[in-house]
Every structure is written in C-alpha cells, then in structure tokens.
TrEMBL record:
Top-rank taxon, per record: Bacteria
InterPro entries: LysR_HTH_N, LysR_subst-bd, WH-like_DNA-bd_sf, WH_DNA-bd_sf
Coiled-coil stretches noted in the UniProt entry, renumbered to this chain: none
Name under which the protein is recorded: LysR substrate-binding domain-containing protein
Location of the HTH lysR-type domain: 1-58
Provenance organism: Granulicella cerasi
Length: 300
C-alpha cells in the first residue's frame, strides 16, 4: 500500500465518481480504477458499493476513509516540517556563551531570531571557553561565543571574530591610579592579581606578556580561577588586575576600571562552529548575528 492508493481512494470517495476523481487528479480513469482494485485486493474487501450512483462507501470503506485521511494529513505535515527544516525555520539550536562576552548584539540576535522563527527552540548554555570547545566537539553545542581559538581548536572549527576588547586596569576606588587612563609602566610597583583557572591560563599569559614587553617583572600576589574571583580579590585591596573591558558587566561599585595605555585590543569574542555542521538553521542564525553585531557600536 502506497500513499497514491490512499489519495486515489479519498478522491473517489469525495467526488462519488471515478470520472470526477480522474478529472481532479489529472490521472486516467482506468489508472484510478486499477489502483482502487489493487487496494481492495490488499485489504481483502470492497471499499465501494459500485451499483450506487453516486458511488457509496461500504461500512468498512467509511472506517478506512477516516484513517486514510489521517495518514494523508500526517504525510502532508511531515513534508511541511521537512521543507521548513530545509529553510532553517524549525528545529533546535544549542548556543554556548559566557556572561561578560555578550553584548547587545547577542541579546538582539536571540530576540530577533525567536521572533522570526517561532518554530525554533533555542537552548542557551553559559560555559567557559574551553568548555564550549569540548561541547562543540561532542555535538552538545551548535555554535559557541568564546575567546578566539588557540591550537589545536583553530584547525578543527570555523571561527569568525565579532569584535575586540580593550584591556583595562581594575583597581579599588580611591586607588592612586583611579580616574584616568593608566600607562603600563605605572604598574611596575603594583601587586598584580591574575586569573589563572582551568582552561584560562592563556589569559594570564596574555597579561604577563603585556607587562614583560614594558620591561615589568610583575609582583603576582594572588590568582583566581574565575573573573568574579579576581573582582573580589581586587575589591579587597589585594592588588590590581588587567582585564578585558567586558569585565565591566560584573565589577562592583567599589571598583574603578580605567583604560590601559598604550591601547591593547588583542582579546575579543569569536563566533565558532563545527565545519561539519551544514544546518540551514545554523546558517540562518549566523547571518542574523553578523547583522546585529555590525549594528552594535557598543564598546565591549
């Protein structure tokens, strides 16, 4: 039994005539008669009372008509869902991000994408950069918003930079350096707090490189595994810290955040996804993020 058998049967039942069904389907009457006969042979009984005019359904035919309509409707829905999926209009998209790496471009992209694609389920997961890379690898995430890739990930995934962040100096309010941009040389005598958590050691490396290029052998007095940990240590007066400008999203009222001179913008956010992911849904989302990010003039 094939779907065409059901379509022919429903057309004859609706029109009460093989002739009218033939006209509706643009199929010869003999072909429809042959297919209905094959269907009845497969079912083991007649579907129509052929002596009546118009054709009447047998009691069994009436029952079969109800179920045939359900099957045809289900087939139509399946086809519609498939075509919507091809167009990137339905499905699930899993997105990784970390809190201070998102700007108005991100929230705008999520909001507009949901409005434009109500049939799409967006799953948002807050993760550190190295966690996002692992999740991309095991298929948990479709796209990650993370720091720029380092080896070996840069040879595995597509990564598209969205913006750069300026390096800032974080210190307690009332600190001697608060209130104006800070020259890197002014940090020579300052105790330094670093972020050096799992998967984030490269942030320490970047900061130590900036200080080393200025001829500074830093006095690293403390390390924290997370940026909130760094914020707490600086607020407690343990030392000052270098951090990307996105840190302003979590700084407290007791802290000052000043630009570092000379300007360093070698850190930022990249949009990363697997080269194997050819989903139209993902492609549609990436396009919307690009448009939102182009409009977002906010300095992160």
């Amino acid at each position: 039994m094939e779907l065409r058998h059901l379509r022919y049967f429903v057309a004859v039942a609706d029109r009460g005539s093989f002739v009218e069904a033939s006209k509706r389907l643009y199929v010869s009457q003999s072909a429809i008669s042959e297919q209905i006969a094959d269907l009845e042979n497969e079912l083991g009984g007649p579907l129509f009372v052929r002596r009546s005019r118009p054709l009447a359904l047998t009691e069994q035919g009436k029952i079969f008509l109800t179920e045939a309509r359900k099957v045809l409707n289900a087939g139509a829905q399946a086809t519609k869902a498939f075509k919507r999926s091809l167009a990137g209009e339905v499905g699930t998209l899993s997105i990784g991000f970390f809190a201070w790496g998102i700007g108005s471009y991100f929230t705008e992209s999520i909001r507009e994408f949901k409005l434009a694609n109500p049939g799409v389920n967006l799953e948002l997961h807050e993760m550190l950069s190295h966690e996002q890379m692992e999740a991309l690898g095991n298929g948990t995430l479709d796209v990650a918003f993370s720091r720029p890739l380092r080896a070996p990930f840069d040879h595995i995934y597509h990564s598209e930079p969205l913006y750069t962040e300026r390096m800032m100096v974080m210190m307690p309010k009332g600190h001697r350096l608060a209130g104006a941009p800070v020259a890197v040389e002014e940090l020579a005598s300052e105790p330094i707090v670093l972020r050096d958590g799992n998967g984030a050691s490269y942030r320490s490396e970047d900061i130590l490189k900036i200080l080393a290029e200025a001829g500074i052998d830093p006095d690293v007095v403390s390390r924290a595994k997370t940026w909130p940990g760094v914020v707490s240590l600086v607020e407690a007066g343990i030392g000052v810290a270098l951090a990307p400008s996105g840190i302003r999203r979590i700084v407290t009222a007791g802290l000052a955040l000043e630009p570092l001179l000379p300007e360093h913008t070698d850190v930022g956010i990249a949009m990363t996804w697997s080269a194997q992911n050819k989903s139209p849904l993902l492609a549609s989302f990436l396009s919307m993020v690009r448009k939102s990010c182009a409009k977002d003039t906010e300095s992160l």
